[in-house]
Amino acid sequence: MASLHPNLSAEYLSRSLSVLTPTASLGRESRASTAHRALHETSDGIELSRLPTLQDRTPTTELPAPSISGSSSSSKKSLLLYRITLYGIMFLEGWSDATAGPLIPVIQRHYNINFTVVSTLFVTAAIGFALGAIVNVPLTDRYGLGKASAALQVLAYATIPPALPFPVMCASYALVGFTMANAQCNVFVSSLPGNASSAMGLLHGFYGIGASCAPLVATQVGQTGHWSYFYLASLGLALLNLASSVYVFKLKRLEDLVPPHENAEEAPLVQGSKYGAILRQKQVHLLAAFTMVYVGAEVTIGGWIVTFLEQLRGGGPSAGYVSSGFFGGLTLGRFILWPVNDLLGKRRAIYVYIVAATGLEIIVWLVPNLITNAVAVAIVGLALGPLYPIVMNVAAEVLPKWILAGSIGFVASTGQVGSALFPFLTGLLATRQGVQVLQPLVIGLFGLMIVLWLIFMLNTRRRTD
Asked: Which residues form the Major facilitator superfamily (MFS) profile domain (predicted)?
């Protein structure tokens, strides 16, 4: 208990225990009259003169209940199960985002379609992500964490392995996009007690682990002639997440799972909905725009680098492993670069990492060597890795606490739209100009990220509450 409430003193504990005595109950009847009579009389043998007056100290008859942040071993176990389940959900999201890269050439050959048509997979996923961004805040407030999304995700992945006509696959991707729980996971983690920075870093580190593993499996399965069987693995992961979510969260609402803790803050009395308050925050829109471009650049590289290397650098089917290297670098960056973030300062680190990634992308663009390109792409992933967790932690520093969870959900959901929008634009341009447009487009996105972050910094000050 001392670790939970380091400011507890002996006097505080004495006042706390007084709540349980008849003295406190007598004091509730009439503090003013009791204080007046306390100098002259007693009642039932209890000296009323020992009761505190309002001038002596503030009332302590109602004490805050212990929080979930470790008051018992069962609550610690619950928090651990919550985090493990969230890590599994983010693993599957990373797995899903990194799937397309190694499989795009195989899907093109199977359906005999060009870059533009195959890129409609990203368009339909964008529609799903956009719908998820719109409904995330009200659904999270009303129903809690993912009552239906896990089940719909199972349905979506179950329709892909039979390799049905391409429009069916597009519809499945839309459903996958809608059910991605990135936003809700960010909301949940931001609501848990403890170190938010490390928790957010771990959460997105597991996204990177999933994104690193998917290309390894997809590349192998794609070479067997039964590329659609890869989605059986995705279906299995979705079923596992469904089972763990139902067991751990028990379909409860977020506030039922995590009661208010020491850092909780009551919402001020304002007119309009929480959603309206979020949309009135300029910083939320700037962070959402930055995140959308960042996630778009990340998934564009992972999704199209295999095709780029196959067509322009002479890479064979094994080029799919380069996508895994990129996401592996992304994962490593999220786990090991936190000391660098602290050294540079989180806000300054954003500029350093983007400039480094831009220089490496120029090397990939101008140096026609497969090995050099593969190494440079992996280091690009390393540089991009810390950006997303940094953005989420900066959001926690500058946004009002009472709308923080909903704001993070909105930013994360909007960011996922970029993971579909920009890969589609890449496919559209590649159909007309060739896949060599990949590197100039990505470098342009990096430049846009610097501009958006600069605008955000000029319009933001650290929250002082």
From this structure: 284-465
